[in-house]
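Lab notebook: predicted structure, single chain.

Context: the supervisor wants predicted structures on file for every construct in the current expression panel, including those that have not yet been purified. This is the next one on the list. No modifications to the sequence; it matches the entry in the shared construct table.
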Amino acid sequence: MSVTATGEKRPHVVIVGGGFGGMNAARALKNAPVQITLIDRNNHHLFQPLLYQVATAGLSPADIATPIRGIFSRQRNVEVMMAEVQGVDTRRQVVLLPDREVPYDYLILATGATDNYFGHDEWAQYAHALKTIPQATAIRREVLMAFEAAEIEADPIKRNALLTFVLIGAGPTGVEMAGAIAEIAHKALAADFRHIDPQSTRILLVEAGPRILSTFPESLSAKAQKELESMRVEVRVNTRVECVDAEGVIAAGARIPSKTVIWSAGVQASPAGKWLGAATDRAGRVKVEPNLSAPGLPNVFVIGDTMAREQDGKPLPGVAPVAMQQGAYVAKWIRSHVERTLEPLPFHYVDKGNLATIGRSFAILDIHGFKLSGFLAWVLWLTIHIFYLIGFRNRILVLIQWAWAYLTYQRGTRLIVRADPAEMQARPTEPKTLQEPAPPAPEATEQHTPRNAAKKETHTV
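Prediction complete. Output recorded below exactly as produced.
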């Protein structure tokens, strides 16, 4: 139990993670007779669906992030702790921090997911992932620096490698990033350089599966690919990535020289399953009960990208709406127990549709079989994303930025911020010798291969 400032004893709800699931759970408990502690290693809530806009200089980090303390400044039953959780002792019912323990009566783990390099963690230093603001600003720096370096590079082979961008994984993040980089190269920067032509930039989207955007109907996937190709993005499906190194990518035996590789191929869950000693799936997600509690731990709930649960024979997707609905559901369940009212029925996800955008005025939309593509779908995409942003200020700023970009093709946050010394040391930057280009090879794409794949004979494409 937690004691309030007035001496009242209330059940203590600890929420780990300030993402969509954790935030919705805390907000849904606003008027409940509980005391809440929300723990996150960052001081802000991040609107991840628009993180690619930061990575491509369309928005600044402050446009899509809001301080957690500010969000809950008027919710008196919430306290916020900025700390790194190291584990959970379920026997003693405490959350373990580096220098203290936080007791709980109810625990909600909404710790999200990290990048999955499928056994090739060494690729991480060459292929940028996109999950956090530091990663987004690092990609922005890398993309803009590539054009700057190409402007003063005399060697045409090295210049071509600098102007080649490879995106591994053709889910929504990969597709949206590919379209945004194409817009930067072919529109925003087209007249800014004197010794290179940014319109000659190569953008390759590499996918292991048979098509891009596999969660969408095949017809919409085909339209999205056609739109990308009209923006001069090279889409390679049924292609497995065999190696990522300082010189670029080897995919289907073909060397693709590139100095900028972006990883959007897969995720793995946070270590929450290990903290609980619970059964997990191959991605490390906790296999939860119908009410989203961990097996054998009725007062511990796991939601969002950290949980694994099937519905209608299919696993629940790792998307924001799932986490948001689960956060609200767990809050309702906790409240029913605290107030001794009827428990809610087992969790059921209500799918409100699927959206993805390609470039400045094209999107695809699928809502229960209703399919839409083109400009109108893009307007709906824009409206929905602005609606879900936290804070009136952020909504207005993002709307203004997008309106300006739409009218002028300009990107307002083209700042190159140098990496800190630790990151510079972790990511090799010394120039490498590139292979001579050869005629294009058969189409190639991403995925994960035997560890000796890099030893195969390769050719440059």
